[in-house]
Amino acid sequence: MSADNAHWSSEGSASAQKHSSPSSWQTSASSGGARCSGQGSYCGSFEWVDPPMCPRAKEVIPGLLKRLNQYEEAVEIAKHRESQIEDLKRKYRQLCCVAFFLWTASMLFMSLIGCHLQVI
After folding, report:
1. How far, in Å, CA of 34 to CA of 13, rounded?
2. pTM
3. Which residues share a beta bridge with 34?
4. Which of 45, 64, 100, 106 is 20 to 30 A from residue 8's alpha carbon, by CA?
5. Distance (Å, rounded) from C-alpha 109 to C-alpha 53?
6. d(C-alpha 24, C-alpha 119), whole Å
7. What pLDDT, in 10s, does the model give residues 1-40?
């Protein structure tokens, strides 16, 4: 999962207790740790095991994650709207240029016809 489109999960499954990286909600280094997942003491791989969360953390964290997801969605919507606004501004400038060109051409044409009509 990339950092750009990461959405956090608040599901309390057993897999949520083991992480592939040592990042977690813990506040002290002694509350979790690396455990060897193999048979020997030098297995070459490990899993990060977090201790069980307290009941209050289980109440608070899902709400925080939900709010974070809502903020991330709001940011994406705002970026999309900004992009649409910039496109509309560009189209407006193009239309203004075309309108000015057509107005100038019509004025030039009218002045030429006016001069030609006076000659006759």
Report:
1. 20
2. 0.46
3. 48
4. 45
5. 81
6. 90
7. 444 444 444 444 444 444 444 445 544 444 555 555 556 5
* Pair type for strands 18-19 and 46-49: antiparallel
Strand boundaries in the chain, DSSP class E: 18-19, 33-36, 46-49
Q: How far is CA 74 from CA 9, 21, 77, in A?
A: 18, 28, 5
Cβ atoms of 32 and 24 within 8 Å: the answer is: yes
Q: Do the beta carbons of residue 38 and residue 44 sit within 8 Å?
A: yes
Contacts (Cβ under 8 Å, ≥6 apart) of 68 = 8
The per-residue pLDDT for 44 is 65
36-84 per-position pLDDT tens digit: 555 656 666 667 787 888 999 999 999 999 999 999 999 999 999 999 9
User: How far apart are alpha carbons 15 and 59 in whole angstroms?
Assistant: 18
